[in-house]
Amino acid sequence: MTHLVEVRENLQISRILQEIGEIHAIRGELFRSRAYLKAARNILTLTENLRQMHEEGKLQTIPGIGRGISEIIEEFLASGDVKYLKDLRASLPPGVHELTALEGIGPKIAFKLSQELGVESIEQLETAARTGKIQSLKGFSSKSEENVLKAIERHRKTLQHRLLLGQVLWLIEEIRDHLADCRYILKVEAAGSARRMCETVGDLDILVASAHPEKAIKHFASMPQITRILSKGTTRSSVVFGGSFQVDIRVVSAESFGAALQYFTGSKDHNIKLRTLAVKQGYKLSEYGLFRRKDDTKAAGETEESVYHNLGLPYICPELREDRGEIEAAVAGELPELISLEDVQGDLHVHSDWSDGTATLREIAEAALSLGLAYVAICDHTRSLGIARGLDEERLKKQTLEIDKLNKGFEEFRLLKGVEANIMSDGNLDISNHALKELDLVVASVHSGFKGDEEKLTNRILSAINHENVSIIGHPTGRLIQRRQPLPIDFDKVFSTAAEQNVLLEINAFPNRLDLNDVNSRAAQERGVKMAIGTDAHAVNQLGYLDLGVAVARRGWITPKNVVNTLDVAQLVKQLHQ
DNA sequence: GCCGTTTTCGGCCCGACTGTTTTCAGTCG
């Protein structure tokens, strides 16, 4: 059994539990449904594989997995099939499950459409709506028909239109700039998955404090980038930017801003757990505030801090709010001290115009200085990446001389001499050891040959880790968000070898990489692996991606001491040559 | 179906919006 198959098994099992949960929701078994959906989500964030955990008898140590669900997992692992799911599927009329994927269509309506119109798929529903069959049903109108068609249209679009976090952060800045001009708006914060710094964002929630909600909404809706207004009420509005990306704005009073921000930031699972905790303490928590149940008086709400503190908790930062143990850690006073952008002294992966970057070495240094960085590692591609004008030994030597010369002109800044060497399919690097020995650091990355099996790909990474001159493994899984799946590598072996060899794993901060991701970097830290953040910038304005790398690290519970970018240049060079 | 410093049984977050509801059910986040 290869690791690749096992990783796929985790995904398959998660999907099975997801489907069981969705069917239970349709059947009205809401609590049971939630239990399955939660187990499905938790499995998605595992770095261990379920088959191995099953063999070690550890399935029920996963939160949300008890006797019933572990039996389903075991059945799947043994037979590749789950009879319970088959029976559940058969218990629903065909198409009902599919229809509930549409916005505004839940179980009740899906059943009705299925029973009375015989609709068995989204396509058939579209036909029924277009031919006026839906409005003939009792309780439906032409308005319902329009809404169904809109929901179908949006369903087809949203399958592809999640934006990368980096793109969303720029959009938030544009919106902030625009809202800053409105004197009725007191505060603006992006909430939702964008505030939690999730790697992609499906729609953006903007929260505004104002005593004049209608004026605030009117001002927002006047943004020229808005291509469609979906709804515009007195305290909220939904609009579309650039033809496909939905932004919701909500206006609340300044007194409730903190509670509303807490609520709209989520995640859903975090909020449910927090509200349950509130109930146990005799409170009721909603987007309006924290209220004492006995007399309905308000205990907190103006700030998020006040909400957490009144529940006896330290402030939990948005990046941690995924119900991955943060509330339990907060209760125990064991929240990690997270790395922040201020801790980061330099960027450990930047390309110049010596390969496929656009900026000169001097331009990079000047841009980094203006960002307050103390060092930047120049890591251009090596020769096998012909398309990127990769360096050979001779040009690399020339580049290092140039860097030495430039460094003499800086007092509190240094360009580090590095390279991003290519890990070839046999695990060797495409540049000689004697050239690498002269450098401050060597990033080694896979750029081709993604198709191999797990054993071969893992061995490729392992031989790079074991290479005498390699300091950092660049974008370790090679994934491109929404474009290319991660390499099927055996993290267990990669983590233990990296820790043993003192080789760093990169948190690549380029917006469509974010690799290692949050879950993997957390697992790496637990295994004693240290990490390096690199923007992989190919232009000076991309040095700003450092904040995305920090965001991944924070979501991964990473502390400053496990990221070498927090070291000053002298400590860093020493660490790299250990 | 899961889970436990109220509980191994009996809970499981909370409120807004939408439509055609004339006092509320369904859906959503």
Give an overview in words:
- The protein contains 24 helices and 17 strands.
- It is α/β, with parallel strands linked by helices and 578 residues long.
- The protein has five domains: 3-91, Orthogonal Bundle (DNA polymerase, domain 1), CATH 1.10.150; 101-110 and 118-158, no CATH class; 163-252, 2-Layer Sandwich (Beta Polymerase, domain 2), CATH 3.30.460.10; 257-331, Beta Polymerase, domain 3, CATH 3.30.210; 341-576, Alpha-Beta Barrel (TIM Barrel), CATH 3.20.20.
- The radius of gyration is 26 Å and the shape is globular.
- The model has no long low-confidence stretch (mean pLDDT 90).
- It binds one DNA strand of 29 nucleotides through residues 24, 29-36, 38-39, 63-69, 103-109, 139-141, 143-144, 147, 192, 205, 231, 233, 235-236, 263-264, 266, 268, 271-276, 278-280, 284-288.
Task: Briefly say what this structure is.
This protein is α/β, with parallel strands linked by helices and 578 residues long. Helix 1 (3-26) packs antiparallel against helix 2 (30-44), helix 20 (454-466) packs parallel to helix 21 and helix 22 (518-526) crosses helix 23 (546-555).
Largest sheet geometry:
7 strands, parallel
Question: Which homologous superfamily in CATH is the superfamily of the largest domain?
Answer: Metal-dependent hydrolases
Residue-averaged pLDDT: 90
Strand residue content: 5-15%
In CATH, the architecture of the largest domain is: Alpha-Beta Barrel
Number of strands: 17
Spatial shape:
globular
